[in-house]
């Protein structure tokens, strides 16, 4: 039995261990010094850090799971919970707030039927609120994945959402 076949838990179905194995070996030379970059690659692949992938990584590069968990929870860009295919960040910083960000957020709640931090049932969107994403003059700002949508009005929300599968 190969290392890749050895780990099986409830969440393993979504993790491609052969692909993970190849990535750790070939892209990151199985080097524990590359831990953060490996985590970034896993997050890019799954949009979060599945526990079975981290358990496998721990055994593969010889870093205790507790250490990997510590790193994964220290950086806010990492998520240990499954997230949607598209990540919406609505800015609630002061500049956006005074320009109506709260109304945009409420419209998002209504349209998607989720609250902050939640993911739609179909896995299409995860909604997060953030404090300033660095383009205050465009407020209110809503970011979807890497796309900035500035000066967004409440009645434009659905049109923006429609751009993402
Ligand atoms: S306050 Fe929203 S981008 Fe700065």
How much strand?
5-15%
Within CATH, the superfamily of the largest domain carries the name: Glutaredoxin
DSSP strand tally: 4
Helical proportion? 40-55%
Termini distance?
38 Å
SSE succession:
HHHHHEHHEEEH
What's the rounded overall pLDDT mean?
90
Bound molecules: FE2/S2 (inorganic) cluster
Shape: elongated
Which stretches are poorly predicted, pLDDT < 50 over at least 5 residues? 1-10
For the CA atoms, what is the radius of gyration?
Answer: 18 Å
CATH architecture of the largest domain: 3-Layer(aba) Sandwich
Q: How many domains make up the 3D coordinates?
A: 2
How many strands, which pairing sense, and closed or not: the largest β-sheet? 4 strands, mixed
Strands ordered across the widest β-sheet: 2-1-3-4
CATH topology of the largest domain: Glutaredoxin
Highest-level CATH class of the largest domain: Alpha Beta
Q: Structural class, from secondary structure content?
A: alpha+beta
Q: Count the helices. How many?
A: 8
Note down, in words, how this protein is organized.
- By secondary structure, this protein is an alpha+beta fold.
- The protein has 2 domains: 3-74; 86-161, 3-Layer(aba) Sandwich (Glutaredoxin), CATH 3.40.30.10.
- Helix content is 42%, strand content 11%.
- The protein has a 4-stranded mixed sheet with strand order 2-1-3-4, with helices on one face.
- A hairpin with a 2-residue loop joins strand 3 and strand 4.
- It is elongated and about 50 Å long.
- The relative contact order is 0.12.
- The model is unreliable at 1-10 (pLDDT under 50).
- It binds FE2/S2 (inorganic) cluster.
- FE2/S2 (inorganic) cluster binds at residues 91, 93-96, 132-136, 139, 141.
